[in-house]
Structures are given as C-alpha cells and as structure tokens.
Write a structure and sequence with these properties.
Blueprint (H helix, E strand, L loop, with lengths): L1 H21 L5 H4 L4 H25 L3 H26 L4 H23 L1
Length: 117
C-alpha cells in the first residue's frame, strides 16, 4: 500500500504539473486564474511529487523504514489538506473530488500500515 500511495501521488501530480506548465490557461476552470496563490499551489504539488519519488527510491533501495516514516508524515498531511478542500471549495470542483479519492487511498494505506505493524 505504501508503494501504491506514492505512485498515486506521482501519477496524478506528474501530468497535472505538466499541464499547468504547458497550458496554464486550460487549468483556469479547475484551479482558478494564474495568480500568486496558484503558483504557491504548484510549489506544494511539486514538493509532494518530489517527496513521493524520493519515497519510492527509498523503498527500491531497501530503506523501507525511511520510506515508511516519510509516507506516514506525507500522507497524513495530504489527507488533512485534501479533506479541508471539501468545505473550503465544495464538491462541484473536480480537483476536490480527486482530492477525496486520493485521501481515501492514503487513509487505506495508513490503516493498513497501522494494522500490520
């Protein structure tokens, strides 16, 4: 499950970041206009993607405890901020709906890790 959560982050954030970089105006309906706030969000998304790549590298290199520690912290923060987007923005926004799916996956990962530890 740890690998799955890292992969989900990369598979969602990679294409999203590429789309924002190549066609920023097409992201306006989902992320709002290109403002300082959106650029800050891109920085957050980039950080999450880099941390997820690093977590997968740790797993592949045999540093599973480090990958576990990183994942627990990373996924916990993601769950919190993704769930907070529901009352802040509303379910009509496709980013919020995607956030909920990712939050459910990360919750399942953390529960699995907790149960099996």
């Amino acid at each position: 499950m740890l690998t799955l959560s890292y992969l989900v982050n990369i598979l969602i954030l990679g294409p999203l970041l590429i789309s924002i970089a190549q066609r920023p105006e097409q992201m306006d309906p989902f992320l709002g206009p290109a403002t300082d706030g959106r650029r800050i969000l891109v920085c957050l998304y980039t950080s999450l993607a880099i941390a997820s790549v690093f977590g997968l590298i740790q797993l592949a290199s045999g540093y599973s405890e480090a990958a576990l520690s990183l994942g627990v912290s990373l996924f916990s923060l993601q769950i919190l901020y993704k769930l907070m987007t529901v009352p802040a923005v509303g379910l009509q926004n496709p980013v919020v709906r995607t956030n909920l799916v990712v939050a459910i996956i990360h919750i399942a990962t953390l529960l699995t890790l907790w149960i099996t530890s």
